[in-house]
Amino acid sequence: MLIQLTVITLCPTAVFAKQNDRPGYENSEFRISLFPRTVNQTIAFYTGRGFPSVALEELKPMCFITIGVSNKGKERVWFDLNDWHFKSTHGEGTRRLRPEWTQRWNEIGLEKRFQSTFRWTLMPEKMGLYAYEGEGGNITLLRTDKPITITGTIRVGNDKSRRFPFSINNVLCARDE
User: Fold this and answer.
1) Could you read off the pLDDT of 72-105 as tens digits, one per residue?
2) Strands, E assignment, 18-80
3) Which of 15, 63, 108, 175 is the Cys-Cys partner for 143 at CB 3.0 to 4.6 Å?
4) Which residues form the domain of 44?
């Protein structure tokens, strides 16, 4: 993951194909950064880890967006992806969840070592971040050519009592040129 984030920093034009502005949201408490991935980037990443072609074919119709959430303050920051919504003009985006991936991997007979590798690249569903801590990973949606709006809520404080709704507009599934 560190290597992947280093590549993002060093090669922003490769990461944001067809994305005019770096999508994200930031306030005094936290930052959400989005890094849409092209099909070629996604396939290259998993090919480099030895994934068989049958598994790579499963990834091609998906929109991979690497998400980073960073706590900018001293209080705990909490996210729950169940509170996040991904909408386009086609309606609510269909996010493929861990259990669905596991089921599909088992159906095609993907070895457990590859399933484990894939699992650690996904964004945790729920997490609390300590002061100045960050977390990242991929979410997977069915690919669309329409802009996506991501809305959700981040909670702040040990008791999760402070709620911060956010909206990130015009997120595009990155396309290979």
Assistant:
1) 999 999 999 999 999 988 777 789 999 999 999 9
2) 24-26, 30-37, 62-71, 77-80
3) 63
4) 17-171
Across 36-55, b (16+ Cβ under 10 Å) vs e yields bbbbebbbebbeeeebeeeb
CB 74 within 8 A of CB 95: no
Flag whether 10 is in a domain.
Answer: no
Check if the beta carbon of residue 121 is closer than 8 Å to that of residue 59. no
Structurally, the chain folds into a number of domains equal to 1
CA distance from start to end of the chain: 25
What's this model's pTM, rounded to 2 decimal places? Answer: 0.85
Give domain status of residue 37, yes or no. yes
More confident residue, 15 or 84: 84
The one-letter code for the residue type at 19 is Q
At 68, which CATH number?
Answer: 2.60.40
Domain for residue 116, yes or no? Answer: yes
Instruction: Establish if 129 belongs to a structural domain.
Output: yes
Q: According to the model, what pLDDT value does residue 90 have?
A: 75
Strands 77-80 and 134-142: unpaired
